[in-house]
Design goal:
Length: 306
């Protein structure tokens, strides 16, 4: 029984080392040198070639190498009955929360304004803090932690999701109450899973519903944002700025207008990078559970798509 790592264009060595560290006798095969496809029962995927899984006649479980599974679900060759698990780990959550907190604090304490002032030797003590109310779209493991930490720091926080929730610890709005949610906030954090329902949700029509000057932080997927609507939304004042970690095309092409736009802060999909050492124990545990027919950890709900 073997485990295949299929992560084209990335060096798999860190994963091999981490998995072997946790289970020295594990049988790992690495794409594209998979010599015994019939032995593969579990596949670890990140941006695999669509259709490639047909190579494995005995595949029983797919694990994403990250928190998202949209890269797996977008492959029509993945059988509907195939269980898919994803990474949920404290390190991943911690990094994501730190990134979002950085974005919120940068907006609240206007670091880019002071950087520009410094260049021009301007001493301007006016309005040192922008009052901030943060709305988080997507309140799963990552969004929940972001809400907790921002709440702890004293910011008013609000959650939004596609399903109804009772007993949520913060004011929560489900999809029929989007406008009420947007009325409450001036920082919008997108942490939604990418599903047909959420794809392209952040478009001009959506931004028009925001409070004037809302600040956007997108750390979910590039496809949540209609990219050509972002600069118009800034120009028309619906948004005052954006911090983006994800894009429709990654790496962001040299010719992309976001590179030149001062109101958009760009980072290269590093908000929260899976740490192989931290994530390997749950992969090994799922491999073990698969063999002993036990319930899997962090199983994706195929109907919901996350
Ligand atoms: C993930 C990511 O899904 O890094 O984990 O985007």
């Amino acid at each position: 029984m073997s485990l295949a790592i299929i992560s084209p264009g990335r060096n798999p060595q860190v994963w091999i080392d981490a998995l072997i560290f946790h289970q020295p006798d594990i049988d790992i095969q690495i794409y594209p040198d998979i010599k015994r496809p019939e032995d593969v029962e579990m596949a670890l995927l990140w941006q695999h070639p669509p259709g490639y899984l047909d190579t494995f006649p005995n595949l029983k479980l797919i694990s994403s190498l990250g928190a998202g599974v949209d890269h797996i679900l977008s492959d029509p060759a993945v059988p509907a009955s195939m269980p898919i698990v994803r990474i949920v780990d404290e390190k991943l959550t911690w990094s994501m929360t730190n990134y979002v907190v950085m974005g919120v604090l940068n907006f609240h304490r206007q670091i880019t304004r002071y950087q520009a002032d410094q260049k021009r030797k301007v001493w301007d003590m006016s309005n040192p803090e922008i009052p901030v109310k943060v709305g988080v779209m997507g309140v799963g493991a990552l969004g929940g932690d972001v809400l907790d930490k921002l709440n702890y720091l004293g910011f008013p926080v609000f959650g939004f999701g596609f399903t109804k929730k009772d007993d949520f610890p913060y004011p929560y709005f489900s999809k029929d109450h989007l406008q009420d949610f947007l009325n409450e906030i001036n920082v919008l954090v997108c942490l939604l899973p990418l599903t047909p329902e959420t794809e392209s949700i952040l478009d001009l029509k959506f931004f028009k519903k925001c409070q004037t000057g809302t600040y956007l932080i997108n750390v979910a997927r590039g496809k949540h944002l209609v990219e050509e609507d972002l600069i118009p939304a800034l120009n028309q004042g619906f948004l005052s700025g954006a911090m983006l970690d994800v894009y429709r095309q990654e790496p962001l092409p040299d010719t992309h207008p976001f590179w030149e736009e001062e109101r958009i802060q760009i980072t290269p999909h590093i908000a929260s990078v899976t740490n192989p050492r931290a994530a390997s124990p749950q992969i090994i545990e799922n491999f073990r559970r698969l063999r002993s027919n036990q319930p899997l950890l962090n199983l994706v709900d195929r109907k919901k798509g996350y």
